[in-house]
Amino acid sequence: MALRIFSLRGGMSGTDLAEVLQVHRRTGQKLNRVLRSLTVGLRPRTLPGVSEWDESMFSRQWVLGGVSRRSGQCLLQIIPNRTEKTLVPLVERHSDPEGLIFTDEWGGYINLLRHMTVCHAREFVNSQMRFVHTNTQEGIWGHAKTLSWHTYRGIPKLSLPYFLCEIMFRYNIRSYQTRFSVLSALLSRKTNSLLS
């Protein structure tokens, strides 16, 4: 039952899960932690085609986010700061070498190759080139922040890497049935390895 609930698009807090399953609150929280840990290995390595990039703050920690317009896959990674020294190598490593890169005008992106920007102080879509925007990535931030505050009531800093993997899992695998099947397979593999 916990696996089915975790596979839903919005998820459920450990406390609410415990209420539904009629178990102790800590059991519900532990079930969520175990299922969240299964999503770590599903993180994409590169984003094919055109990609949008932006950074946001979670639990007083900067997070870099990118999304591929071709595959619809997102990638979220904790970063120490928003400097060019941090952002440029990460964006270039995870972007398609042939694809365009869209960002806002933050100075940390200034030396990216194949780079186009939108000035968020004036507009959310570049008025000269309407296809240049970061609205898809902004939507991912909205989904992640809603989940972090309304469902989980905040994310402890130590849990942030796992929470980001959960967000990528939910966003990158849009079908409930596929999410459930993937988690079932990963859980049975983990259970079998523990029994060996």
Describe the structure.
It is a single chain. The protein is an alpha/beta fold. 45% of the residues lie in helices and 15% in strands. The protein is built from 7 helices and 5 strands. The protein has a 5-stranded mixed beta sheet with strand order 3-2-1-4-5, sandwiched between helices. Helix 5 packs across helix 6. The longest helix is centred in the last third of the chain and has 20 residues. The two termini are 25 Å apart. The relative contact order is 0.17. The mean pLDDT is 91.
Shape: elongated
- Distinct helical segment count: 7
Poorly predicted regions:
none
Distance between the termini: 25 Å
Name the beta content range: 15-25%
With strands numbered from the N-terminus, the spatial order across the biggest sheet is 3-2-1-4-5
Q: What would you call the structural class?
A: alpha/beta
Structure summary:
This protein is α/β, with parallel strands linked by helices and 196 residues long.
Question: Keyphrases for this structure?
Answer:
7 helices, five-stranded mixed β-sheet, 196 residues, single chain, alpha/beta
List the helices and strands and how they pair.
Elements: H1 2-6, H2 14-21, H3 25-38, E1 51-58, E2 61-68, E3 74-79, H4 84-94, E4 101-104, E5 115-118, H5 135-151, H6 160-172, H7 176-195
Helix pairs in contact: 2-3, 5-6
